[in-house]
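Reagents: none. Just compute today. Sulfide dehydrogenase [flavocytochrome c] flavoprotein chain.
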Amino acid sequence: MSRTVAVLGAGVGGLTAAATLREILPATDRIVLVDRSFTGGLGLSLLWVLRGWRTPEQITVRLTEAALPGIDLRTGAVERIDLEARTVDCGPAGSIGYDALVIALGANLDSDRLPGLASALGDGVAGEFYTVDGAVALHDRVEALTSGRVLVLVAAVPFKCPAAPFEGAFLIADQLGERFTSGTVRIDVFTPDALPMPVAGPAVGNALVDMMGARGIGFHGGKSAAGIDARTRTVEFTDGTTEPFDLLVVVPPHAPGAAVASTGLGLGGWISVDPATLATSAPGVYAVGDCTALPLLNGKPLPKAAVFAEAEATVAAHQVARYLGCDAPDSRFTGEGACYVELGGELAAKGEGDFLARPAPRVSLREPSTAYHREKERQERDWLARWNIRS
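Predicted 3D structure written out:
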């Protein structure tokens, strides 16, 4: 009897899960991959678009059936997931019944959550680099800046790619060149966390602060934004202080989408999963990537990063196959992963370690080198080649 596995979201996690399932499940089983658009920018490369090292075309993934043979690609926006009826409502694209489900719907940007942010973005006094269009526009704003202060703001936690705000500061300094090194333009980073990348521990956080300080970038931890005034170009913080800016570079608040929240499978709308198997509390339902809340032993959630989504997706696919009675590896998510911290000048540091280690994550930050920058370039090429297959 034919069964249906629905995979929701065609990011790195969803693509990996669907491809792995097709390798394992019988040809008679149907795999449906749902996404609102099977064309999008590779998140790994957005900071390089900001820096001007990539164009949108160079980082675009255009998924076709040739890249995922034997998988039904359904274009539509997931509006609701009904766990009792075991159906996925895709609005005008119809409803999909499933025997097993992998949710990989990522995280949304929620600019309205911080008062004044949407207006600041709309007025062009603020910019973001979490979308392709945003990264392009922000590059142009940095290029046009002749003097003043760039304020890099983490609006709220959690957010995708824990190194991204600090990479953004480094790459903006690199783009500014003499305007920054001469002091004509200053850069300061503000974040609610006491240190950068707190899940990695104080040694990594302090190392990043030292790197910023050595390049003349200011770091201000423990600063939670309360609102933005686009007219006066100021950020107000919850401690009552304000900070001026000439250009605001913001990591917008992140939120689970309505469909993710509709499951009721976790606190705050994020989906709680078993750290080893990615199983949710609903039978036959698994979740991977940025839409999840995977608890670590230090009480912090696993960072939202593509490298983890990819590894989780392989495990989830194996567990789905086993749930359906197929012969598949009983694999477990190990929590091992790495990310790169771009510093400009084709230099990158590398943070890597075991995030599920006991009693706390064991993560180290490798010294900057061109070799790590080249590693990230290879990863970009591999992912683009993997998903941009043409018939």
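The chain has a mean pLDDT of 96.
Action item: order primers for follow-up constructs.
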